[in-house]
Amino acid sequence: MPGRNTAFLTQERFDEIRNNYSRFNEPWLEDEVEELKQLAADGVSKDIMAIQLQRTPNSVQLKLKSLGLYVPRQMPPRWTEFEDKALVEMYNEGESFEEMATCLGRSVNGVIGRLVHLRVKIFNKDGR
Questions:
Q1: What pLDDT is stored for residue 100 in this prediction?
Q2: 51 and 81 part of one domain
């Protein structure tokens, strides 16, 4: 395997990664770089890019950085006490997760995560 650096990986770990990402530790080819650029332009996540290109997510991120295309994901703003109260109130009034997310300018996963963080019982007997 050309270019294999065993200084930081055991053979077992190398083989394990290689089984998941067949292009692991291989030089990038021009057509792969072009595909990476297109995926980045399309807004595809680095994890999906990694699967598509058979590279590790770290390799994809490093290549995007070297091309000046890596944009780190911004952390959403902290939840305020006002938002927490509004979220719980909307939830208790039966609003959908999508409606709560839209109203608060958050993602559905963010809303659900915050409800869990606040220890709100999210699902009741009727499955809501």
A1: 96
A2: no
